[in-house]
Fold this protein.
Amino acid sequence: MPELPEVERVRLTLLPLLAGRRIEKVRVAETRLRAPVDARALRRAAAGKHILGLRRRAKYLLVDLEGEKILLMHLGMTGRFRIVRAGSRDQVHDHVALALDDGNEVRYNDARRFGLVQVLARGEEAIHPRLRDLGPEPLGAGFGPATLATSARARRRPIKTLLTDATVVAGIGNIYACEVLHAAGIHPGRTASSLSPRRRERLVASIRSLLQEAIAFGGTTLRDFVDAGGEAGQYGEKLRVYGRESEPCETCGRRVRRIVQAGRSTFYCPGCQH
DNA sequence: AACACGCCCTGCGCGC
DNA sequence: TGCGCGCAGGGCGTGT
């Protein structure tokens, strides 16, 4: 599910509901996420603490807490946050609940349990194993044609799988990798190192503008993504190739193809991507 | 050592 | 209507 635009959307919609609130109670209904949820550590870190901020790094959300700790959260494929009145019945797959001082509860719900809720020490972001190897943010100043060139140098692998490698650039997943390559007119199977400087620049520009637009549209809802306000994303209507196998390309009319790269579906237009 | 693969898990849509 | 299969937005361990 959630790639950078969706996670950013969750951050934007969750922030006003959390900012300045105090966490009164922490309840863990299911510990078996990607990594086991340490309920004791979670309670120690969060119970009684004010929420100072909510940041995003790659597809992770980081909740800054009063005191020494940060909550590191990941939505995996099916994770979502809901705000409910405290004490209302858990829905199926509600795993973690944070009761707030305004009578609301934040519920973390994740059917497939590929997500993560973990406690970090403040300042640990740069050295924590899950975060330390992440590449630059695609919308930040640390990413550009030059960094892409460095990452692509001497790599034989296709540009599409390079884009979904979080150590190269953080936050691009399967949908947006397909879409940005279509926008830039680049064939997903092209070797990363074979891109000309001009095409690298075009790709970077496409990544920036497409991710920004996707955030503005609330992200992509394929089946179940919703932001913290329960709203589905509208960018799905703007997808040009992802999930559109055998439909005509809106640019050139050729039929969109689906191939498999590194075990995942890639969609592209044979007419406008070379 | 840079890659691809298979797995973690649940749910859904499809074909029969 | 029911059942089995394939597939799904991610990430990580393993093997080549």
Remarks:
- The two ends of chain A are 28 Å apart (CA to CA).
